[in-house]
Design brief:
Layout lengths: L1 H21 L5 E8 L2 H14 L3 E6 L3 H10 L8 E7 L3 H8 L12 E3 L1
Antiparallel strand pairs: 1-3, 1-4, 2-3
Length: 115
């Protein structure tokens, strides 16, 4: 009797965990690629447009790496903007294939934001 009760409790816990995993929102935006060069930015935008993927680009002129490179290399024209590409969770693998990056470790690191 005790064994059946324990199995029932374990089964209910597993069912709750499965429900929790499937209820992750699909509209969370994930970083798929980051760059600080204008020509790479234009190339990646073209690749995503051709694949028909909805994406957002976060542009930051005062990102910490850019400020360091501007001061260290003394070429402010080369490092003007930091571009971070974000796609929805359902398009993440498709975007990695289109941009030819690895889905497990994108160059920009993993970061997600809710928009």
């Amino acid at each position: 009797m005790l064994n059946l009760l324990f199995q029932d409790i374990c089964c209910r816990i597993r069912m709750k965990m499965k429900k929790r995993k499937s209820s992750v929102p699909q509209e969370v935006w994930h970083n798929v690629y980051s760059t600080m060069f204008d020509d790479v930015y234009q190339k990646k935008c073209r690749l995503l447009d051709e694949a028909g993927i909805d994406y957002r680009v976060f542009m930051d002129p005062d990102e910490a790496n850019l400020v360091y490179l501007r001061n260290y290399i003394n070429k402010p024209d080369s490092y003007r903007m930091y571009y971070a590409f974000y796609v929805t969770r359902r398009d993440y693998k498709k975007a990695c294939e289109a941009m030819k990056t690895l889905p497990d470790s994108p160059p920009g690191g993993f970061c997600s934001i809710a928009m």
